[in-house]
Amino acid sequence: MDLRFAPEEEAFREEVRTFLKEKLPTRIAEKVRQGKRLTKQDHETWHAILNERGWLANHWPKEYGGPGWSVAQAYIFDVETALAHAPRIIPFAVSMLGPVLIKYGSEAQKSHWLPRILDGTDWWCQGYSEPGSGSDLASLKTSAVRDGDHYIVNGQKTWTTLAQHANMIFCLVRTSTTGKKQEGISFLLIDMNTPGVEVRPIVLLDGEREVNEVFFTDVRVPVANLVGEENKGWTYAKYLLTYERTNIAGVGGSMAAFKELQRIAATERKNGKPLAEDPLFAARLARLEIDLENMKTTNLRVLAASGGGAASLEFSAMLKIRGTEIRQEITSLTRRALGPYAQPFISEALDEGFNGEPVGPEYAASAAVDYFNNRKLSIFGGSNEVQREIITKAILEL
Questions:
Q1: What is the 3-state secondary structure (H, E, C) of the chain?
Q2: What pLDDT score does 302 carry?
């Protein structure tokens, strides 16, 4: 394939850059650049701006409200928005549930839920992981028992990202205990305001409430909220995961983070010279840049081969592994570049309006948080060890 962008694609790149200059709020972009915390309202504001332009669900077909972009256009948009320090689109509704509903949902579900995703009426979270059912997701135990026109749901989900903001959750639930464990799973859409749903925060080391536990006690869910067929949810779950893992690769985000790392390396000094001129540090920077360039090429090849849809399970696994490893190396090298300035952590410094005394340069405030938070990248969405097993079975046939 020809990896060069066509003139019309370069023209599209300029269109995206112009849009970002005109529409991306400076206040929000500065928060992203400095690694400060974004509020729910910050995300909703950016989603509304994108939706007004028709660019929010950038890989949906036109008939459902997407822009109908080519693979190259979607890639260019992802890279340019990251380099402009735009917030990353919250993926749960737009990039994960949306494609599942478009492919497997009923016409009634598509006409009801898809417009509500676009206009921000609903904030969705993902009910996949459970205590004891993470990488071995098929072992999940949350049950849904049919009772007339409803399912009665009981169980617990965990590591539910941003559930404190959500009014809806898409869940994998067990509707049968016979046969293979993958064959007794269904895909349900659950209103978080239904009696019996309880959200409890999991406070992380940095004091953030990024993830939660969600408990279900005799929660009544209309059968109309079942996506596809009962006991066929594993098929839909795997389809969703291909979008999630491709998205986790985060090429645009890594390009923006690497650019910031280069700026830091040119600013910080060692023995009176810029750190970027230190032979050992420069070698690590060069190695990282080569890996990032290789991943960009691989990402384009995989997306082109997929025809604009989700990559296959094995190739999305490949992207997930390399993408998360590279992002972790960027945060590791950033922390090293800052030396002692990366050790202190003032949580309040990540809040908008902080006017306390900083420790070190302004780009040091989020270095430790970014480093430790990104350790999770190689675990969530299916651990990298599980991804290697997928590749081994699907490509190497071992």
A1: CCCCCCHHHHHHHHHHHHHHHHHCCHHHHHHHHCCCCCCHHHHHHHHHHHHHHCCCCCCCCHHHCCCCCCHHHHHHHHHHHHHCCCCCCCHHHHHHHHHHHHHHCCHHHHHHHHHHHHCCCCCEEEECCECCECCCHHHCCCEEEEECCEEEEEEEECCCCCHHHCCEEEEEEECCCCCCHHHHEEEEEEECCCCCEEEEEECCCCCCCCEEEEEEEEEEEEHHHEECCCCEHHHHHHHHHHHHHHHHCCHHHHHHHHHHHHHHHHHCEECCEEHHHCHHHHHHHHHHHHHHHHHHHHHHHHHHHCCCCCCCHHHHHHHHHHHHHHHHHHHHHHHHHHHHHHCCCCHHHHCCCCCCCCCCCHHHCCHHHHHHHHHHHHCCCCCHHHHHHHHHHHCCCC
A2: 77
